[in-house]
Amino acid sequence: MSDRDIRNERAGRLVEAAEKLFAAGVMSHSGHANLSARLDGERLLLTPGYVRGLRPEQLATVGFDGQVLEGELQSVSAEIIAMHSVVYKARPDVGAIIHTHSPSATAFAVAHRPLPCRTEPMLRFGQAEDVPVVPWGPRGSDVSVRGIADVLQQRPTTAAVLLANHGLLAFGPDSAATAHLVVAIEESAEAEIAAAAIGGAVDFPPGAQEAVRAAIARAAS
């Protein structure tokens, strides 16, 4: 495909992912989020500062260095380019990133508490471990970006991080997979909070991850 075809295809999928998040009810009251998709080793597509009613042609093409190459960004999105690009640089396998203020996941971020992996959807959609917390830093600042880089280095298999006092940052091979993970994390955070009222959540038994992988493989065969 041409560069234009690739851009259009990935922009369309980002818009679909945003629509899925709203339909699933995992967005904050404000609907704030930002989504991106990798174009290549130096460029990404980024939502312009809003996601509700988003159209593919409204996405901006941005360099990992922060330069806007095509389209326009509101200042609210220009601030977070580095937050996305640091993940793409650290994880060559990541094709899309979603940042939300999903209420229950954000509760864990505000409490500075890692979110345990205790629900099967988290296992199935790529987060078979606790979601770690990145120490707080001003939004888009060097402090915040360095914190994300440090946690990704310490936790090389995590597919999400909680930004302390801020929200959720999730990443995956493509927009659809990342949206599924955001939904799974928010549902798991809701379940953790609800379970606390009836005695607390319980860890999976040993071998749970392997059992889920085997079940997925059998269904796909």
TrEMBL record:
<protein>
    <submittedName>
        <fullName>Class II aldolase family protein</fullName>
    </submittedName>
</protein>
<dbReference type="GO" id="GO:0046872">
    <property type="term" value="F:metal ion binding"/>
</dbReference>
<keyword id="KW-0479">Metal-binding</keyword>
<dbReference type="InterPro" id="IPR001303">
    <property type="entry name" value="Aldolase_II/adducin_N"/>
</dbReference>
<dbReference type="Pfam" id="PF00596">
    <property type="entry name" value="Aldolase_II"/>
</dbReference>
<dbReference type="InterPro" id="IPR036409">
    <property type="entry name" value="Aldolase_II/adducin_N_sf"/>
</dbReference>
<feature type="domain" description="Class II aldolase/adducin N-terminal">
    <location>
        <begin position="13"/>
        <end position="193"/>
    </location>
</feature>
<dbReference type="GO" id="GO:0019323">
    <property type="term" value="P:pentose catabolic process"/>
</dbReference>
<dbReference type="GO" id="GO:0005829">
    <property type="term" value="C:cytosol"/>
</dbReference>
<dbReference type="GO" id="GO:0016832">
    <property type="term" value="F:aldehyde-lyase activity"/>
</dbReference>
<dbReference type="InterPro" id="IPR050197">
    <property type="entry name" value="Aldolase_class_II_sugar_metab"/>
</dbReference>
<keyword id="KW-0456">Lyase</keyword>
